[in-house]
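User: My collaborator sent over this chain with a note saying "see what the structure looks like." That's all I know about it. Can you take a look?
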Amino acid sequence: MPSAPSHLRQLLKIIPFWIAWFAVLFGLYLLFASSLERAELCVGAVVAALSATGAEVVRAQNLAHFRPRLVWLLYALALPWYVVIGTGEIFLVLAKYALRIERPHSLHRALRFRPGEADAVSAARRCLAIAYSTVPPNFIILDILRERGLMLYHQISPSSVPKITAKLGAQP
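Assistant: Without extra context I'll predict from the sequence alone. Here is the result:
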């Protein structure tokens, strides 16, 4: 029995990932749209299909390596709490400014950060540190300087470094 051509084998490797991307993206679209009307389902399917295709084209380039540990992904469960806290900090600054009690003390800072190497696990840790830390509105990561072991960030109101950021390599 002859083996399948190489392009067919390649396609068979891509299909499961494409289906997974499509399912996740279509689900997210439906959550965003909050509607199950026929038009929304059609638009969502087209958008998810195009996005899944784009994701697979990028993945096929094999340029980015991302290998997170499961516990790092689970840190995302704490993000809603961080959003609530960060939003409260921003509203407090806004209220003080609106009532002419105090002007905002926006600041840029650097803190020590264990960047790791150029491997997929370290890249995932850095990526998640940036993503998770920037979700709360009061803490925005500007850059991680790997060669200097620094994380640069901006805050509207001075507060402590999020615990997730510390767990992912920041050294406050």
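A starting point for your reply to your collaborator: The radius of gyration is 21 Å.
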